[in-house]
Amino acid sequence: MPQKIIIDTDPGQDDAVAILLALASPELEVLGITAVAGNVPLPLTSRNARVVCELAGRPDIPIFAGCDAPMTRALVTAEHVHGKTGLDGADLPEPQMPLQDAHAVDFLIETLRREPAGTVTLCPLGPLTNIGTALARAPDIAERVAGIVLMGGAYFEVGNITPAAEFNIYVDPEAASRVFAAGIPLTVMPLDVTHRVLTTEAHLKGFRAMGTRVGDTVAAWTDFFERFDKEKYGSAGAPLHDPCVIAYLLEPEIFSGRHINVEIETVSDLTRGMTVADWWGVTERAPNATFIGDADADRFFALLTDRIATL
Ligand code: RIB
Ligand code: CA
């Protein structure tokens, strides 16, 4: 029986690769994709999600537009990383498939109330605004969620949008605080682990060798996406953040981490959006998240290229 998931996303080249990995994996049933404002504004993230599904040959996937701004703050975007469209690097046609009429938050609430409790996993890949808003509007859904596997946060790697905070958490710390306090089984893919899966030339060879439209597109996105991180970090490649979430669902043993307490800074401007991870157990605060710290990069990229090659 495939695992039912909802992908909440702000595409973003790395989100796009995560969506492709999910659609290429029969172990997963994507009930829907909910777009949120993040890397680029909502009109673009809800367009980009459709572009990716059509690239994968899956115009049947229901896609919903969600929140166009954080719960209480002004939107911060990341065109400097992802380009003006959010999917710079490859020219793809405008999507033909329509957006669903329902708002993403209504889709999340209605789906979680309809599906048997404990059968739907949420996979947020961007700011947590849609999820936080759904929890605020319908607290009853918290106990119905099977689990949340999200990309966000940082501890040893520290921040990427500020010295203290990772982008997804920084954009909407209030939403993140709600998610981390909801009591839902939570697995977090922070920068600590995503910076272990760098798009080095060796790892990218598989995409380039596929000879498929999808493989060529992923290679082109990665070429664009990695220029920013390689220049900033002087690294041999870019961290492929969001696909870690889907890879974890498929092969959790690729990853390792600790079940610890993680709190979100929402008060200080200096450390806004910091994930205060009690990795060394120095507080009495109750563990609320499995915080992933490492991954086998070779196994990760082998999984990714094997699956994407099937599209
Ligand atoms: O900090 C990395 C995260 O921010 C990734 O999800 C990327 O897509 C951006 O949303
Ligand atoms: Ca993202």
List the helices and strands and how they pair.
Elements: E1 3-9, H1 13-23, E2 28-35, H2 42-55, E3 63-65, H3 79-82, H4 104-114, E4 120-124, H5 129-137, E5 145-151, H6 167-171, H7 173-180, E6 186-189, H8 191-194, H9 201-209, H10 213-233, H11 243-250, E7 255-260, E8 262-264, E9 275-277, E10 289-295, H12 297-308
Parallel strand pairs: 1-2, 1-4, 2-3, 4-5, 5-6, 6-10
Antiparallel strand pairs: 7-10, 8-9
Helix pairs in contact: 1-2, 1-10, 1-11, 4-5, 5-7, 9-10, 9-12
The protein binds alpha-D-ribofuranose and calcium ion.
Describe this structure in words.
It is a single chain. The chain has one domain (3-308): Inosine-uridine Nucleoside N-ribohydrolase, Chain A. The chain contains 12 helices and 10 strands. The protein has helices at residues 13-23, 42-55, 79-82, 104-114, 129-137, 167-171, 173-180, 191-194, 201-209, 213-233, 243-250, 297-308; strands at 3-9, 28-35, 63-65, 120-124, 145-151, 186-189, 255-260, 262-264, 275-277, 289-295. The strands form 2 sheets. It has an 8-stranded mixed sheet, sandwiched between helices. The protein has a two-stranded antiparallel sheet with strand order 8-9. α1 (13-23) packs antiparallel against α10. The structure holds alpha-D-ribofuranose (RIB) and calcium ion. Alpha-D-ribofuranose (RIB) binds next to α1 and α6.
